[in-house]
What we know:
Blueprint: E1 22-27, H1 44-51, E2 78-84, H2 91-107, E3 111-115, H3 122-127, E4 135-140, H4 160-165, E5 170-178, H5 186-195, E6 198-201, H6 202-208, H7 211-214, E7 222-228, H8 250-263, E8 265-272, H9 283-300
Parallel strand pairs: 1-2, 1-3, 3-8, 4-5, 4-7, 5-6, 7-8
Helix pairs in contact: 1-9, 8-9
Amino acid sequence: MIPSPSFLGLPDHLAEGHAPRIVLFGAGHGSTYPGQDSSGQALAAHAIRAASQEDAPLIEHWDFDLGGPLFDGKPVCCIDAGDVPTRMQDNAGNRARIEAKTREILALGAVPILLGGDDSVPIPFFAGFADHGPVWILQIDAHIDWRDELHGERDGYSSPMRRASEMPHVTGMVQVGLRSVGSARAAEIEAAMRYGSRFVTARKIHAQGVEAALRHIPEGARVVVTLDCDGLDPSVMPGVASRTPGGLTYTQVIDLIAGLGKRARIAGFDLVELYPPNDISGLSALTAARLVANAIGSIVRQA
């Protein structure tokens, strides 16, 4: 594969004496199910970085999503640290490397942003916050991802929120954009409800706005955002493995991110499940790149 340019042309380090406030990195593979192929999702980080290049010369320009330039008129404080090395089916090794990188970034006092990868990569990402809790999780997804195991694998893409619920440093979760049908059965719904997860369907967001989700987040909480691309409507995000009509709009998602940054503190952000083989004219990669830019801008604007 051709080496990826950095996201938005960001540097891989800052000048000596300047610590980054945000560190972005990629991870192509997490915990792949036996006999399955995650190589399509592993193309995502490269596709997102490539899609960001058109805006790379414009980071000092006015961004109407953010109400000002990306870094709010301040010096660049985000670096792109490249990709964690991962291999398909090296599940334990992949998890260890993703968690270690997350811990390394948090030890710098920076906010990690992870570009996946399928929806198994958030599990070690969440685990990396063990010494930096308590945290809440805001999940944007069409599905609740509460399977205890599938095909004998407990850390696959159907299980990230179940595994998060078992982590002592995760004190609550809000799951937004839910709709249609997925792998969840009544048992998974009951388990999530027993834990206390707050379900906010896509229909509720369409009817009541993003406040329907944000009101469940305690003011001032530290929150890790996990964004599965199928949480968005396929009209703006067709490049996913499971297209599901009725999803969130681009504007609703950036309003969620901005609203969260004002109500609480974004402690981490991951974007997963972009599937470039299903993309149409690069629309999904472009949308994903803009979502990541909005996350960076919202973190920059946190007090």
